[in-house]
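Quick one, T. Sequence first:
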Amino acid sequence: MAKITDVARRAGVSPSTVSYALSGKRPISAQTRQRVEAAARELGYRPHAGARALASSRSNVLALVVPLRAGIHVPVVMQFAVSVVTAARRHDHDVLLLTQEEGEDGLRRVADAALVDALILMDVQLHDPRLPLLRSLGRPSVMIGFPRDSTGLTCIDLDFRTAGELCVAHLAQLGHRVVALVGSPPEVYVRGTAFAQRVVQGFTAAADRGGLASAVHPCEANPAAARRVAERLLREQPALTGVVVHNEAVLEPLIDAFGHLGLRVPGDLSVTAICPDELAERLRVTSVALPSAEVGGRAVELLMEKLAGGAVPEATLLRPRLTRRESTAPRPA
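Structure tokens:
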């Protein structure tokens, strides 16, 4: 393993110059810095993480706070986590994943121990109890999600309200007049999870504007619950012809359940979803994509800018896009 003295010898400078050139602690001429960086690359030299942290008072670690609560769809959460880790590595940072339901205690523990330089928080609630502490921690942070009051915070997410509106607007354009939202598990709404609430808001607002009859049905994330919801929908809304699904785990079981009840998609029933593109493509479902890679990557970029002392926007809402596939068609005559 190459040492700092090896880099110094290759670049023709002192070890201290190598340290200054790679850490940026003192001004070094561009020519010398380039020579040192080239030597480091050639030798595969990387500064010792512990020494670097001591020298800079930085850990080069980000915390990703993802409490794995009931009702969370773990595969989608992990897509966001992978995108954060990938983006962090591009900036030579590691990621500490915090999955316990610790609330304020967990945030205070990692902050007081100086384990991380900054934090990314997921599963944001409209009235999130972590907000007062987050505002007082003195550590840069980014929330993937928007609480009701985001003043003084940096937040990024898909515009879920508009996503719900887009799905209803698409169905309305096809002539559907009776629609339903099959949503997240009930406990997600009980917690006031922000993205789920905003989908409901968008769905309901768009249906009301268009004069559509609508209903919202939370659904547990299992096939048996999907069958029960399908039966209930047809019993309570016999004229139903359009469904929006915001629950990745039940999308396929729900379509299967409608089939067993004698409804063809899209011949009798049009289905749209808010879900990852790969799931929608496999099932050929019209959908609004969950841009996990873009959200996670941009959350890290916002943190890096904050760590560098730069100014960032408080709110970054990603515009949703609807992709039409074979699951939607004009309302049957």
